[in-house]
Every structure is written in C-alpha cells, then in structure tokens.
C-alpha cells in the first residue's frame, strides 16, 4: 500500500482513514479495509497468480494487487459503471501505466456477480461490495487452494473468507462485521429503475 499513492485514486482527503465518494453511488474504501483485504489474501498470492477484484471502483486495490505479483501474474478488475471503468484506468495510468501496458492489470466492464471466466481460475478473489448471498459463479471461478474475501449481507454484513479446499468443497470463516455499498445491478445503484420510464 505504501508503494501506491492514494492521491492518484481518491478525489479528496486521500490519506484519511475513511471511505471517500467517487461518484455513481461508489466509494474508494477506507485504507484500513483495503489493508484488511490484502492481509487476508496475501498468503494465497504468488508471483504468477491470477486475481479477480470485483467492484474495482477507483482501481486503488487492483493496483495494490498488481504490486504483489510478477509480470506473469494478472489482476482483473471488474466494474459495472462505465464511468468508473474509465476513471480507474485514468487513475492507474497516473500511478503506473506500465502495468496496463504489459497486461498485468486488466480492467473490464461487466457484472462482477458473474465473475470473469476468461481468466479463471483465480487464486484470490476480492469483492469490494456487499452481496446479499454468496455468488456461486465466483466460487466456481476460484482455484483449488484459492481464497475469496467478500462482504455478505444486507442490513447486517459480515466479511467472509472462503477457502476452496477441493473442487467441490469450500470452508467459510467469518472475519468481522463490515459496512459496504451493495453488490447490485447497475440500475439499482444509479437509481434508474425501469418503472421510472413507465
Ligand atoms: N474497491 C473499490 C470500490 C469499492 S465501492 C475501491 O476501493 O475503490 C464498490 C464498487 O463495486 C463500486 O465501484 C460499484 O460500482 C461496484 N459494484 C457494485 N455492484 C457491482 C456489480 N454487480 N458488478 C461490478 N461492480 C459492482
């Protein structure tokens, strides 16, 4: 985290330990939550790991993951708001454009609840928004020996660690209570619902 300057990713107060709005109903998470996520995933991250960052928002954590792997590793950031996809690419370019150029970082627009099968299986999956329940497609895309950290819940959310110990077996551990923005559809997040047009 010390090697990635948050000033390239946060629109204001980059060094305060709090989430900061980045527009479109999203925030750059607080540094202590970024640190917590990296802490729980670091043991499964190797030089050539494939990592999926769901809800990559500002791109800050995606960048931190890229610093933990080598040129043969890959981190995919998946984000469903096109403006945030653009923003994160801009931020990453300010921070270290070479990681986009050499393909260590790939930012894609899409529904993170479905994961990104093209680069699966993943040694580590980070989910940066709270899912109402565990998304099965993300578990499917986890490598055996891989780990996912994910906030799960609606009003009350828990930060869970999911370890895939065999092709059809996962171990679940509750790490702590947390507060994240929801992992949801684009329309729900931006407040535009179909009925508004009826
Ligand atoms: N980890 C990022 C962003 C955290 S906010 C950071 O620290 O900068 C959560 C992000 O998840 C938001 O950017 C939001 O747009 C995104 N998100 C919510 N639901 C999503 C979905 N279904 N697919 C992809 N991204 C989603």
TrEMBL record:
It is an enzyme of class 2 (transferase). Signal peptide: none annotated. It comes from the Eukaryota. Its main location: cytoplasm. InterPro entries: PCMT (IPR000682), SAM-dependent_MTases_sf (IPR029063). The keyword Zinc does not apply. It is found in: Cytoplasm. GO terms for cellular component: cytoplasm. It catalyses: [protein]-L-isoaspartate + S-adenosyl-L-methionine = [protein]-L-isoaspartate alpha-methyl ester + S-adenosyl-L-homocysteine. PROSITE patterns: PCMT. Keywords: Cytoplasm, Methyltransferase, S-adenosyl-L-methionine, Transferase. Its EC number is 2.1.1.77. The keyword Protein transport does not apply. One of its GO terms (biological process) is methylation. GO terms for molecular function: protein-L-isoaspartate (D-aspartate) O-methyltransferase activity. It holds the Pfam family PCMT. Belongs to the methyltransferase superfamily. L-isoaspartyl/D-aspartyl protein methyltransferase family. This is Protein-L-isoaspartate O-methyltransferase. It comes from Acrobeloides nanus.
